[in-house]
């Protein structure tokens, strides 16, 4: 039996050859290719996990930014309400006070929502860490 020819991208096919005829060099080459492929897949998984967590962080930051803007408007309208209310206790001052209170409620809701969302952000790519642990365990004991 002649040694099989390996082309790039082809793996071991037990139906085509007798494993006892495979050279050590070919086996090491296949293992090296498989490990390289596994490493690339692990890197892609880590990228996907980090990208997903960054999106969560971006949404939470947007809500916190909205809360900051709403807080700014609260101070602005409260200042107008206080000035108008003290200057002449009329409809304009009370109207501005109502608007300021509404903005305060919006700020509180956005802040609480953003705070909850930021707790869900996990910068650690946990699935990748787990699969890397499994890979390391397999490398230590490939037969078991």
Automatic annotation (TrEMBL):
Keywords: Membrane, Transmembrane, Transmembrane helix. InterPro entries: Phage_holin_3_6. It comes from the Bacteria. Residues 1-23 are annotated as: Disordered. The chain crosses the membrane at residues 61-86, 92-112. This is Phage holin family protein. The lineage of its organism: Bacteria, Bacillati, Actinomycetota, Actinomycetes, Micromonosporales.
């Amino acid at each position: 039996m002649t040694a099989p020819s390996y082309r790039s991208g082809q793996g071991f096919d037990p139906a085509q050859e007798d494993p006892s005829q495979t050279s050590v060099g070919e086996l090491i080459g296949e293992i090296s290719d498989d490990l390289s492929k596994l490493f690339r897949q692990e890197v892609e998984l880590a990228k996907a996990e980090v990208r997903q967590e960054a999106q969560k962080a971006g949404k939470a930051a947007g809500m916190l930014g909205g809360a900051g803007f709403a807080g700014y408007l609260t101070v602005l309208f409260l200042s107008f309400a206080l000035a108008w209310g003290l200057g002449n206790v009329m409809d304009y001052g009370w109207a501005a006070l109502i608007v300021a209170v509404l903005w305060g409620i919006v700020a509180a809701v956005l802040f609480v929502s953003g705070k909850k969302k930021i707790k869900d952000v996990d910068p650690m790519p946990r699935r990748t860490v787990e699969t890397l642990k499994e890979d390391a365990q397999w490398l230590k004991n490939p037969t078991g």
